[in-house]
Design goal:
Layout (H helix, E strand, L loop, with lengths): L2 E9 L1 H46 L1 E2 L13 E9 L4 E3 L4 E3 L3 E21 L5 E14 L25 E4 L4 E2 L2 E2 L2 H4 L6 E2 L4 H5 L3 H4 L2 E4 L2 E4 L11 E8 L2 E10 L2 E3 L1 E2 L5 E7 L4 H13 L11 E5 L7 H30 L3 H31 L4 H29 L1
Parallel strand pairs: 2-3
Antiparallel strand pairs: 1-7, 3-9, 3-15, 4-5, 6-7, 6-8, 6-14, 9-10, 11-14, 12-13, 13-14, 15-16, 15-18, 17-18, 18-19
Helix pairs in contact: 1-5, 1-6, 1-7, 6-7, 7-8
Length: 410
């Protein structure tokens, strides 16, 4: 059951004015920095787009049942049955499972602190801040430092994970006549739950057997699974079974490696099932431009790009989002003194604050679209022109907002 602790602080009008003026410097610094960051990020995305275009023109389709030395170092597309002659072994838990890979997830029961802040402006420009710290017990993937809580008393955490999370590959995985490298195997397939059994409990190392139970198909290390205590640990497992996979990578003898393009990115792509190279390139290209798709090591499709030469889709979209967000905060910081000045009468301060906030987000969006449009206009003309139009529209809208706010301010 959650409990909470509330703290109330206040700040006078003169102090707020001082802080808001200091915030102008923050805005002046953060806006150009985020513009440079967005430009660099789009440069990476453009490099990926050019690399995919180069790869699509160079790919060679090969059969899985025979290795042709003539294709060495070439970008090949191959589909076949992935198999592992031996089991995947998790030595930490004495688990041996017939699969391509085994994913182990450990969680520990801990106190977790969350906070909720509410600000209230009062006549005269004073601002009262009420911060509520909420404490709850939850399963988390790593120990939480309760010493850093606002109120550690009564919320002390203890215990540690046993071995941590793991993504374990079978010792040898083949796809037809090819050997699949371990880095590729770690990205293959969509793991499914593998419930532990009494037989698995019996093979646990001696130091884990005592105190370990089975609950909902997972190991539970603690006194009573029905009443979790701080420090209890639960361990679950997922596996990827043998099956059909499609691989897009450079052939290296009888195995694979990332294909280094002249455009800059090193490409290797793995997809579950029988998938054409055209579809694999199309999926990745769409994700690289406008479609937000979050892929993880558990996803059925993963694009790997070497960190020296490119960026994966998740990173590209995260930089876009946070770049836009920080730019908006920068504009808000620059215009903050206006709302603080007006906050002598709270109602007026709130109106000004909403107006400057809206203008800040529209401006940040306009500049973000402009940067992205310029980066893409020669690679994806239609996309670049569309985003340029959005940027121009946002600038026009910002001017209208600013014009409309003048009479109100007066």
């Amino acid at each position: 059951m959650a409990d909470s602790f509330t703290e109330v602080t206040s700040q006078n009008w003169f102090s707020r004015i001082g802080e808001s003026i200091k915030g102008i410097l923050f805005g002046i610094i953060v806006i150009p920095v985020t513009i440079v960051l967005l430009w660099w990020n789009e440069g990476r995305a453009v490099t990926t787009a050019n690399s995919l275009k180069e790869g699509a023109a160079a790919v060679v389709h090969v059969a899985a049942d025979k290795v042709d030395p003539a294709n060495d170092k070439k970008l090949v597309h191959v589909t076949g049955d992935a198999k592992a002659p031996g089991p995947v072994v998790d030595a930490d838990y004495g688990l041996s499972v017939p699969a391509l890979r085994l994913v182990r997830t450990e969680e520990i029961y801990q106190w977790v602190e969350n906070k909720k802040t509410e600000q209230k402006q009062k006549v005269g420009g004073c601002e009262e801040t009420t911060t509520t710290y909420i404490y709850d017990k939850k399963w988390v993937d790593e120990p939480v430092k309760s010493s850093e809580f606002k109120k550690p008393e009564g919320h002390t955490n203890q215990g540690d994970l046993i071995s941590g999370n793991a993504n374990i590959s079978a010792e040898k995985v083949t796809l037809g006549a090819f050997d699949v490298p371990e880095d590729f195997v770690k990205q293959m397939g969509s793991p499914i739950k593998r419930a532990v059994t009494d037989a698995d409990l019996a093979t646990l190392p001696a130091d884990l057997k005592e105190g370990t139970k089975i609950q909902d198909g997972a190991f539970y290390i603690g006194p009573n699974p029905k009443e979790p205590k701080i420090g209890d640990v639960r361990v679950s497992f997922e596996i990827v079974k043998p099956g059909t996979f499609s691989i897009l990578a450079a052939q290296l003898g009888d195995t694979f490696e990332p294909y280094q393009t002249k455009a800059g990115d090193a490409i290797d792509s793995i997809e579950e099932g029988t998938v054409s190279s055209e579809k694999m390139f199309k999926d990745v290209a769409r994700a690289n431009t406008m479609e937000t798709r979050l892929w993880s090591f558990r996803g059925s499709l993963v694009l790997l790009v070497t960190p020296q030469t490119g960026a994966n889709t998740i990173e590209t979209w995260l930089v876009r989002f946070f770049g836009f967000l920080f730019m908006a905060f920068g504009f808000m910081a620059i215009m903050k003194p206006l709302s603080v000045l007006g906050s002598v009468i709270p109602f007026i301060g709130n109106i000004i604050g909403m107006g400057t906030g809206l203008i800040s987000f529209v401006l940040a969006g306009a500049i973000s679209f402009l940067v992205i449009a310029i980066a893409w206009i020669f690679v994806r003309p239609l996309l670049g022109i569309a985003m340029l139009a959005l940027a121009i529209g946002a600038f026009i809208y910002t001017r209208k907002l600013a014009a409309a706010s003048k009479p109100a301010a007066a």
